[in-house]
Amino acid sequence: MRRLNLILLAIACIFLVWILHEVGWTVLWSHLRQVGWYWPLLMLPYGLVNWLESVSWKLMLLFGKDSPSLTRLFWLRLGGEALNQLTPTASLGGEPFKAARLHADGVPWETATASVVIHKGILVLSLALYILLGIALAPFYLPALGGHLWLLGLATLGLTAVGLAFVIAQRRNPCGSGLKLLDRLGYCPSALKDREEKLNGLDSQLSFFYREHRVKAVLAIILFFLSWILHAVEVWVMFWLVGYPVSWGMALCLDALAMLFTALGFFIPAAVGIQEGGNILLALGFNLGLPLGVAFSILRRLREAFWLSLGLIVVGREK
């Protein structure tokens, strides 16, 4: 699987370089140069995104008064997301890092792992809601899409189904059931069998959260949804900085649909190529033009590079 991911990544990089060459470096530079000294504005929305998602993570961390501070969760999440995006692990490579660092901070393994698992499920559900909002706006901003809109809706329903299945499974003792199934099939590794007690404790933590803390779960989804809205703010700022302002509705619709393409490319590190292709197709659909679509993709990648670099620094310091 890792080899396949790396092969797809190489193909995507070739596609990206070809697109940049087709647009022309001079044209791209003319758009990017307009940002000038306002580049820090590009970094601000994602900082707020990470803060909101750290707040939602803290809601799931049922560890009393000694729970890690919000600042600590902010940096751990930044490091974990850097690993999620940059490693060929289907956007899951950073989750063990988050749980391990929380455990090193004194949080019980079951509690730390449960918070990470719950957080991931709520992230997927909130993303599906955000994309559905974008699809609802699409007829107003993408009338030409018309008959093809159902394809995007179908992909979003698939994403929603995955998120719901993941959350429902968390309430049904997934670890214990999985161990029993493997044991019946005769394929249960001894390493898992030795951790059966801890895995059963993880099941208890997951079911306890959804049973006793439903209000916190709802608040976490709301915070996540607000964080996705901030991504739309980022899009609005980007187009404003390159001298082509768009409406708030168009920014939200464009970003929500772009997130769908990015989600579909989860198996490629940083969704390289998939994200750019989606952004360019959407820019053409919104009549923004190919150069603006590519400039938008580059600005988003520059923002990602900034925060991913900070995340990698966090990972390096934690080791």
Describe the structure.
This protein has 319 residues and is mainly alpha-helical. It has one domain (2-18, 42-318). It is 80% helix and 0% strand. It contains 14 helices and no strands. Helix 2 (25-33) packs across helix 14 (290-318), helix 4 crosses helix 14 and helix 13 packs antiparallel against helix 14. The radius of gyration is 21 Å and the shape is globular. The relative contact order is 0.15.
List the helices and strands and how they pair.
Elements: H1 2-23, H2 25-33, H3 40-60, H4 70-86, H5 95-104, H6 109-141, H7 149-170, H8 174-185, H9 190-194, H10 196-212, H11 214-241, H12 248-264, H13 274-285, H14 290-318
Name a few traits of the molecule:
mainly alpha; 319 residues
Count every beta strand, where a strand is a DSSP E run of 2 or more residues.
0
User: How much strand?
Assistant: under 5%
Helix-strand topology string: HHHHHHHHHHHHHH
Helix content: over 70%
Low-confidence stretches: none
Largest pleated sheet: none
**Structural class by sheet pairing and helices:** mainly alpha
Tally the helices: what do you get?
A: 14
Number of domains: 1
| Span of the ends, CA to CA | 26 Å
Q: Compute the average pLDDT.
A: 82
